[in-house]
Amino acid sequence: MNQWISLEEAAAYLNLGKTTLYGLTRDGKVPSKKIGKKWVFSRQDLDAWVNASRPIESFFMDVGVSIDENPQLREPQIEAYMRAYDFFSAGGKEAIIQLPVGCGKSGLASLIPFGISKGRVLIISPNLTIKEGLLETLDITNRQKCFWRKRGVLASKDMLGGPYVCTLDSGNLSVCNDSHIVLTNVHQLATNADKWLKKFDPGFFDLIIVDEAHHAPASSWQQVFDWFTDAKILKLTATPFRSDGKSIGGDKIYRYPFRKATINGYIKRVKASYVAPSELTFTAKGETKVYTLTDVLKMKTKDWFSKGIALSEVCNQNIVDNSLEKLEELRETGTHHQLIAVGCSVDHARAIRSLYVERGYKAEVIYAQLDE
Question: Taking a C-beta distance cutoff of 8 angstroms, is the pair 202, 230 a contact?
C-alpha cells in the first residue's frame, strides 16, 4: 500500500466528493501535503483525522485538553477558567471576568469554550485590530501564533478535526456552519442586524464571549444577547465599567488584582514618559515665582522645595494632561492600554485621581493598606 494517495483516491477512501475534499484541503481542515500543484494524502493521517472529527455540538465537551495543570499557562488564565467552568456548570448565565491588561485575555478566550460550550462559540471583539489578533490566536493552521499549539493546550492529533475559526468577512454563512468558532466585531454584527444577526438561528451559538466588554455601550451588546437568548455569556474586561461610565451587566466571578499582576511580571511593557517644561510656576509662603529648570536643579536637594513642586496644582495638571495625551496615542493601536500615576502620598494620589476624573477618565487610588 502506497504511503501517499492522490486527491481522487483520498476522496474515495473517505467517501467524500472530490470538490468537497478539495475545499476542506485548501482551507487546511484535512491533513495533506502539496507536491508541485497536486495534493497528496497519508492514509494514516486520514484515519487520525476521521477519529478526531467530532460533531461541533460535542467538540468542546469531548476533546482532550490541558489547562488546570499546564505550566505554560498563566495563573490568572487557569484560575479564571476554573471559575468560569464552575459558574456555568452550576447553571450560570452571564459572567464577568476582570483581568488587567497584559494578563492574557486573548489566551483566556481561547480556553473558555472547553468543557463549557455545547456547540458553536461566538467571540465579539471591540474593533478590527483586536479581531485580527484574536484570529491569529485561534487559527490552528497558524503554527507560529496559535495559542493552543504554543501553550500545549491541545495535542496535534486532537487538532486534526478542529477547532476551526472563521470571521463574517467572507459573507458565506455555510462557512459558519462548518466552524466551531465565529469571530466578529460588535459593529459588524449589530449595526446592520438584517445583514448578519437575523440570518443566524437563535440557537446557533451556545456560548458568547465578549472581549474588552467595557468598550461599547450596553445597547451594542444587548441586541446580540436578545437574539441568542439561550446562549451563555462571558464578558472579559480590564475594568467593570463601560465607556459610558455605567457598570457592565453580569455576575463578576473572578478578578485578578493589578498589584498581583505587577508582582508576577505580567505587566511589564510599561512606557515611561518624562514631562520637562522649560519653566515652573511655584508658590511658597504666599509668594508666586517662576523658576527655570536650571533654578529647579540647583534647589532640588532642598526637601521643602522638591515636595512643594511635586504637590503644586500646576505641576499636577501638566503631568496629568501630558500622560493622557500619551495614553491616547497608545490606544490608537487598538489595545486598551492603562496608565499608572505615582503620587507622593495617599492624599496626593487622591488629588491626582480627581484631575483624571475631571477630564472624563475613570481612576482609582491604590495604596499598601488597601484591601484586595
Answer: yes
Distance CA 143, CA 150 (A): 8
Helix (H, G, I), strand (E, B) or coil at 10: helix
Q: In what order do the strands lie in the sheet with 205-210?
A: 165-167, 181-185, 120-125, 205-210, 232-237, 94-98, 251-255
Write the pLDDT tens digit of every residue in 86-106. 999 999 999 999 998 888 999
Residue (of 71, 82, 45) closest to 157 by Cα position: 45
pLDDT tens digit sequence for 270-298: 666 665 556 666 555 556 666 666 776 66
Distance CA 281, CA 289 (A): 6
Distance CA 15, CA 10 (A): 8
**Identity at 66, one-letter amino acid code:** S
- The three cell numbers of residue 216 are 461599547
Q: What is the dihedral of CA 249, 254, 260, 266, to 10 degrees?
A: -80
Domains (ranges, CATH) in the chain?
A: 4-52 (1.10.10), 56-263 (3.40.50.300), 279-358 (no CATH)
Could you tell me the three cell numbers for 12? 474515495
Q: What's the CA gap between 339 and 327, in Å, rounded?
A: 7
Model's pTM, two decimal places? 0.69
pLDDT in tens, 310-344: 556 777 887 888 888 888 877 776 666 778 887 77
- The percent of residues above 70 in pLDDT, for the chain, comes to 78
Q: What ranges in the chain are assigned the alpha helix state H?
A: 7-14, 18-26, 43-52, 56-62, 75-89, 105-111, 128-138, 147-150, 173-177, 186-190, 218-227, 258-263, 293-299, 303-311, 313-331, 346-358
